[in-house]
Amino acid sequence: MNEWKQRWIDEVEARQEDLLKLCSDLIRFPSENPPGDSREISRYIVDYLAEAGIQTEIHDAGDHMLNLIATIGDGTASDRHLIYCGHTDVVPAGDLSRWDFDPFSGEIRDGYVLGLGASDMKCGLAGLLFSVKLLKEFNVPLKGQLSLLIVPDEETGGHQGVPWVFDRKLIHGTAAVIAEPSHPLHPTIGQKGSCWFRFTVPGTPGHGSLSPILGDNAIVKAAAAIQALQALHNFPVQLPDEVKEIIGITKEYIATRENADFSTIIDRVSVNIGTIEGGTKTNVVPDRCEITVDTRLPFGVEPAQVLAEAKRILAEVDIHEELHPEGFQGIANWTPPTDPIVEELVQHICDVKQEKGYGVLQWASSDARHFRRAGIPVLQYGPAELSTIHGFNEKAPVRDVVDAAKVYTLTALSYLGGE
């Protein structure tokens, strides 16, 4: 390993208590989305960066959703502009009685940072903030620019976050890293597409005591629709040749690293019935039932194809209602492993962890798709206990939190010529 790398690794290691305090502080802000009020946590971040003389632009997207942009480096010696992106919002904590600890404690215990958002993604966000502040404090002469893009809205679709910023051309970079949770050796360099939709099944009301003789029960019809839509999982997929290798690598990763039996989901359509809403009263035959569906799409499949197939399937059970697309809509996307930002970050993972790392695909979706749509190569890497994300008792391993900050620091230095 180069001497300069070891010096920065040692510096982050020596300052890990400051990093972990930052993690705990961020977790203590109840930035659940919904409702999505980011004002308090955003003010804390602005003040934290100001301690190192870093100024932050605040862009209000409405509804107390604040997007933050802070940049260091003058960019006169290189046109490279690296964006470090993170989100401040977290999913709702849910039933507090089912947590073994206060979800907003930020407690550090038994080698873990504990609390809501620890893995998704406040510990990763802390690592980005810590690394940029560290580089600023040392006055590293970066040849390009390094920007923090901190967004308030990712967990509910992100419409007031990254796409809001890009639509207004508030920032543009040549590469990006998002601190979304990942395996410590395997950043995610691509993700499946998505197609969310809803539809309403009509019925005819009547007295519950006369069902099923009289009335047309919308919920019963909806049950048939739900069962029929499971066939979307078997939608035929023709993988493009250029992604077949990374698909194979990802399947092997899931089987070995995740110790899970869902590797086939990478090249198939997933189907989740998200919500069912219908009926007015127990003793009234329901006259309507609304269903929402979340499908994730492999490479080679587009949302319009899935919608058309869903309509065909529903017609077979005599449901001909309109399907309304909503939420995530997009095709599978990726950044090739040969892109400079991927090669450099993966190399630094290997240096820090002293193990072999490589990029894999993600079976879900994230803000990365907006970066790629804007022509910005991007990958995701963040500390996490993956099994606890969006669940009770969320936590992140301290060792991975510290190591991720090392990787962020080294990647910024190498990509922007500040070694």
CATH superfamily of the largest domain: Zn peptidases
In total, the number of strands is 16
What are the low-pLDDT stretches, counting only 5+ consecutive residues below 50? none
**Main sheet record:** 6 strands, mixed
What are the secondary-structure elements, in order, as H or E? Answer: HHHEEEEEHEHEEEHHEEHEEHEHEEH
Do you know the CATH topology of the largest domain?
Aminopeptidase
- Gross geometry: globular
Q: How large is the count of helical segments?
A: 11
Helical fraction equals: 25-40%
Strand content: 15-25%
Number of domains: 2
Supply the helix-strand structural class.
alpha/beta
How confident is the prediction overall: mean pLDDT? 96
The CATH class of the largest domain is identified as Alpha Beta
Query: Which architecture of the largest domain per CATH?
Result: 3-Layer(aba) Sandwich
Which descriptors would you attach to this protein?
about 425 residues, alpha/beta, Aminopeptidase, Alpha-Beta Plaits, 2 domains, 6-stranded mixed sheet, about 35% helix, EC 3.5.1.18, Probable succinyl-diaminopimelate desuccinylase, Bact_exopeptidase_dim_dom
Q: What does this protein look like?
A:
This protein has 419 residues and is α/β, with parallel strands linked by helices. It folds into two domains: 3-191 and 332-415, Zn peptidases (Aminopeptidase, 3-Layer(aba) Sandwich), CATH 3.40.630.10; 193-330, Alpha-Beta Plaits (2-Layer Sandwich). The chain contains eleven helices and 16 strands. The chain has helices at residues 3-14, 16-27, 39-50, 118-137, 162-167, 218-229, 244-256, 303-316, 340-353, 368-373, 398-415; strands at 56-60, 66-72, 81-87, 108-109, 112-114, 145-151, 175-178, 188-191, 193-202, 270-278, 288-297, 324-330, 333-334, 360-362, 378-380, 395-397. The strands form four sheets. The protein has a six-stranded mixed sheet. A four-stranded antiparallel sheet has the order 10-11-9-12. A three-stranded antiparallel sheet has the order 4-5-16. Strand 4 (108-109) and strand 5 (112-114) form a beta hairpin. Helix 1 crosses helix 11 (398-415), helix 2 packs across helix 4 (118-137) and helix 9 crosses helix 11. The longest helix is centred in the N-terminal third of the chain and has 20 residues, at 118-137. The radius of gyration is 23 Å and the shape is globular.
